[in-house]
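Hi X.,

You mentioned you wanted examples for the new student's onboarding notes, showing what a folding record looks like when two proteins sit in one file. Here is a clean example. The first protein comes first, with its sequence line followed by its structure tokens.
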Amino acid sequence: MRHISKRIAVMYLGNIVEIGPGETIYKTPLHPYSRALLSAVPRPDPDAPHDRRIHLTGDIPNPIHKPSGCAFRTRCPIAKPECAEQVPPLEFKEGRWVACIRV
């Protein structure tokens, strides 16, 4: 994606959670799901440390019956109780649009 896309949209359960310039999102993802997704990209160096991979835990939500508020909150490492209250709107932050009240 980094080499073929000028603009990238990251989606979780059918909702855009981050959208913006490809290189910006690839280098510094803001949304917790974008961070976890990009941490899983294989490295071409087999001797490189593998400690940067983010392993998500928690309940995988049903896409038909999404949880209240942020759909990613059940697996999000930075979720707080207020994340269950409303679906976060896309807001312009640091050169891209992000849907997270914690960013």
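Then the second protein repeats the pattern, sequence line and then tokens:
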Amino acid sequence: MPDIEPKQAACFLTAVQAGSVRAAAEQMGLEPSTVSRNIAALEKVMATTLIERGRHGVRSTDAGTLLLSYLKRREGEFDLLRSEFDALANMKRGKVVIAVGEGFVGDLFDSALASFSAQFPDISFSVNVGSTDYVMQQVVSEQAHLGVAYNLTKDPRVRIESARAQPLVALVRRGGLYDMRSPLDLTAISQIPCAIPPKTFGIGAMITAVEAKYGMRLRGVVETGSIAALKAFVRNDMGCTILPRFVVESELSDGTLTAHRVSSEAFADGVSSLIRKEGRKLPQAANLLLMQLKKMSAFS
């Protein structure tokens, strides 16, 4: 492999991740023409086309995807080496990238990051939030050291470090129009306006599977990947949503929402999972955080 100039690699990586040369230039504090020249120079060195330009920005070619994977592995290996140097000096520092489903964010900070950061102040974090599919992609591509997601599909590329059953419950405003009885059956839920996550989210995928299995459809009047929006929908007594209990512990504690068990085994199969890429050796900081993440409410 020919030598790769760090600035050329950075321009290529940033352009692909940002989706456009202009966005990459803004992030890097460079002129778009400078970013383009660096990518062109890298393509010349590699003797192949690395990105494709279109109306909606840029994306990597097949060759570019291979190079992207190589650069990420190299970056991870360097982080690991630096971590091992730190370990030799008995130092606890570094940066850990965590990919999480939005429903886990509150639990992540409350149950893990707050106490961990106090214990290891020299370790920093990058928290990437997205759907279950996004979390899986982040971990498999080694863009994230660790992932926390709901209702993951089994994948041999991923190692599950911790998992716990977290059944879905129907959530309504306490004392509101739809706070009728407990538990609720599927027929009753299907009559209530619902806010639900999209199918790319583990919860949305479970709901879709239940609808197909039982030949029914929820009254999905709002579809959103925002947990805050799902909660706001219910808080304003617009209907119900369906989430695991740990996502709304604070609202249940303060009496804002009521959780109704669904009288069907259909929503009992949800599982929260803490994952890493199979075979990847984690740096010291990520290994330390891994132990702390297992104390989250989602896994305890």
